[in-house]
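Homework-ish question, so no full write-ups if that breaks the rules, but can someone show me the predicted structure for this set?
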Amino acid sequence: MAYRTHLGSLKSYQKGSLDIVNDDKKHYAFSNLFEVAGKAKPFERVAVTKNIEYVVEVSKIDGTSPWYAAAHDEFVVIMDGDVTVNFVKLDPSAAVPTGKRGATQLAAAPNGQKMGYVRAKLGNQVLLPTGAAYQLVSNGAPAVVLMQTLGGDVTIERWKDICIS
Amino acid sequence: MTAATASTDIKIVGKDSELGFTEFQFGSFKFRRDEYFAHVAWPHGTRIIEIDRFLRALVRDIGWQFFYGWIFFDDVFGTQNHYGSVDIFAGTYDGGYKAAKTDFMETFPTDKVVTAFDTIARDWISEGYDPLRAPQETGTPLGSKREPRKDALVRGFTPATRMLGLPGDVTPRSDATGHPVNRAFADLKLEKPEVHAEKGFEGQLNAINLFDHIARSDVTWNPSVASITGASIFCVTSEEHMLPVIHGNDRNEWFIQLSDEIHWQIQDKNTGNPRGRIVMKAGDVCAMPADIRHQGFAPKRSMLLVAENGTPGLDELYAKGKLPPYPLDF
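A: Not a homework solution, just the prediction itself:
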């Protein structure tokens, strides 16, 4: 038998359902990441999960993103599209303070050594290492990414807008 | 009802001369099987569980090292992880058994339960049957004892420590590791990322095809760690048929459906009373609160990402009511 795998995308997705009894639907914070990305502005990092200090952010990459850095590792998963991630090694004087949670958006392109780049497509996961600044660039159509990180300055929470209630 | 443990070593207490299977006692629990069923007995009670269901739960419970929280083999029998010790319970989280005072629980050191469950699994599983594979991919556990399996019963549980594919960390699955792409994902276009590191930064940039890694899993309902930052853990898993346990987490967790769909039956963790049904399709994101149990059903093999907070001691905060069981108020 030939199986057909169903994936979502910015242009086409189906949302599931939440039939809850004896509980509050909001406790399940049910959303769809493609819907969230579709309604967001480019490069907004909208939280779709929150587990105390840890979040998963969804972002629509349309063009060239700002530069970001963090005091901890982050990871990005490409859920739709084709993205190039550029990396620059931050000078120690420009590093994000130890202990600061989440990504920091840099005011300008970082001074530092170019570390290289990763070209990532659907289903790829990329390490965003601590100590490095990174920038995401869409190749062609807008892309959708998930970021594994901590909640911080650039994390947008709009649960009422994105969740079934 | 709980009891001090009489013995923390598994014992052989009988053998079925016709079918060939061994009967075991571990603490106050007795375990035997016949052609179709596992029979579990404890002071004041007994329970029958279909053998395929029982073995699928048993092997995963061992491999997960009892996972987070409660693993219900069915609505009555299961284990609870205390991260150093394990409760084995029967009826403790069922209103009827509690009311009749036929519930029972015993606590054992974790390593003793691993040994006990592994001993049972090793005796009860025969060649040709792999409880970690989807039912369409393996043989049957039914019938009398056949030639025992000689390979590892538990596999696929090796976690990454920072990220799959990093030097010194776990290698993603591939043809070279003996993991071809599963038949259910043969239609996927799985492209590798391109990593271009400048001189001096080799090994510092890392990227993998996560979907490819999941598509090559030869086990089902077996979350394995792909990436960790702090205590944020991304576990990925391929799911087909049904989750052979009902999972009651001891902390809030999140599911992100990467492909296809899974249907979840949701119950109150303590009573088993229904809480509802959730259908997740590709792109859906949903919290699984700490006061529920859930069981998944995947009509077609699908990819799931589970986001956990592995902070030590978090389970105690939820248990003491210092954290609400659900993640958000809005």
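Now go work out the reasoning yourself. Hint: Residues 2-133 of chain B form one domain.
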